[in-house]
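Table S7 (text form). Paired inputs.
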Amino acid sequence: MSAQQEDGCWPRVTAASLASGNLAGTIVSLVGKVQSADGAGRWRVQSADGGIVSVENAHDEPAPPPTSIVEIMGCVKDDGRSLDFFVSRNLGDDFDEASYCEMIALQADPKYQEMFGVAAAMARIP
């Protein structure tokens, strides 16, 4: 990360936006479903965009049911494509992932930078 992350501001990401590898060290929010947990603190999460993200859960937080959509807050690991788990919250079974992905696309569009503020700017840090 090339700029100081402002307290309380974090980009909302998908597997596709993590694929650039440019967010290492950044605290982010990822929405998706936990597909599996290996019992050793690693979750395989299907992001709202359908991609897969590995989440390291050193807190031994129990994995939510695979039908539940969750928001996971964590820090992007040095590989730029996986997360260290901080906390999660259940968003239920009927969260609209397609609309969420559309919002992520708008958030990343420079045309709407003022609307989405620092979190959107952080998502574009090279």
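Next pair, protein 2 of 2.
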Amino acid sequence: GHMIESLLACEAWLPIRSVESTPVDESLKMKTKLQKVMAALDMPQMFDAVMSSVFTEGVVDRGAGGLSDSGRKPSTAMTRASSGLEPSSSQDLLESTDNGNNFDLSDGSTTPSQKSDDFCYREGDAAAVVRKASESAELFWTGLASDAEAIRNAVQKLDSMKEITKVKQLEAELKRERAEECHDLHVVDNVSILVLTFGIFFRALCGRRPTVAESAVAVAAVNEWRQEIAVKRPGAFWKKTLFVEVVVSAMKESTSPLQPHFKSNGGFLDLDDLHDRSALLQPFFVSPAINVCDIMCALDKFLKPEHADKGAKSSQFCEWILLETIRLAHPFPILERKLASDVEGIANKGAHVFIEFDHGCCPVAGQQQPASSVFDPNRWENGDKCPFSGIPFGSGPRKCAGKQVACAVLSPVINSLCRTRRPWFESSFKPGVGSRFSGRHNDCNGDEDSAWLIGVVLRTLKKSLW
């Protein structure tokens, strides 16, 4: 009668709670608060502006964390003059968050033309526009890789400091030693994706770019959560606690769009309350940082040149790529539920069931490959009428509340990747490098703490029996 996820995951998520892993009554309370925040901030529209800022200004504030912006590698607005791109047009070339509008990019204009999802180009200008779009996209991703290397160095410094309680201690250490200049890296690895994801949501809810030190705390803490949720080894509680302190402090700053909604200002949000705090930290920071890395690993496997060609021109197609990627490689492929009603011939109401998302979608050795196992973004053309529509974000009262936000964030990210040249993509986009303890790939890698794992299993059995 006990949900295994509640017995295992709730402890792993501490010092916060998870909307997905808590009992139903607690989950509904947190989800109600989450939905109020999303409505108050008009999040889909807000994230359009956030993504524009990320692509034009970069992800990390290097000047505030021990490395000056002059030390960063070419990535954003600073490089546009040398690449021949005007700032007004490069933003449009980098983005595809057109919300269904069609933009003529050949003259740098941002004026919508006919209502269509595909981008139109003036005859004769198409090759130049595509080339500039590719250059801009690759510059962004190369700059992100450079940011990630600076943050990786900061994570090593954090590990050596042992159980600090304030991010300012790490910032002071980085400034004292002046972080070494990064190598001219071009590989976008797992840390790069984590830095990007954290930077997007931090900018959205805190109103500014994170520093190197703040990003390093996020990378370190998310990896601790990841390994404990995957039941591989205990996570360092002090890193997770430090992450909570960093993000909550930043959300309380005057730059945060949440300011009008705090109880101290007459609003409904109290960041000192565990459930209010968790309703923001889990779905907007920790879970995306874990899940987006897994999604990008799957995208690297599935994305073919013909998909990239269509995705470079259509934001709608990028959303279909996202949905199809999650369908075939869901970050958490097993769902645990209790039946609310009888299912004839299968189980009765109240039965404890496990739903395997991959079942029927993936090829089986020695059997003919089913059509459902083929990566085909076009199957999402009819939206919710797709027979797999319940897989990517779930359905019912416990479905993921962040579908619109996920699409608003990841569709332009996928579009930017689609705009890169294929040789660059194949040589530089390596999200699987450094990936450990994911929801899909957490077995047989020799990283588990066997004694701790046995203890967790025994404690879980004890809880379920008594």
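Residues 47 and 55 are 12 Å apart (CA to CA).
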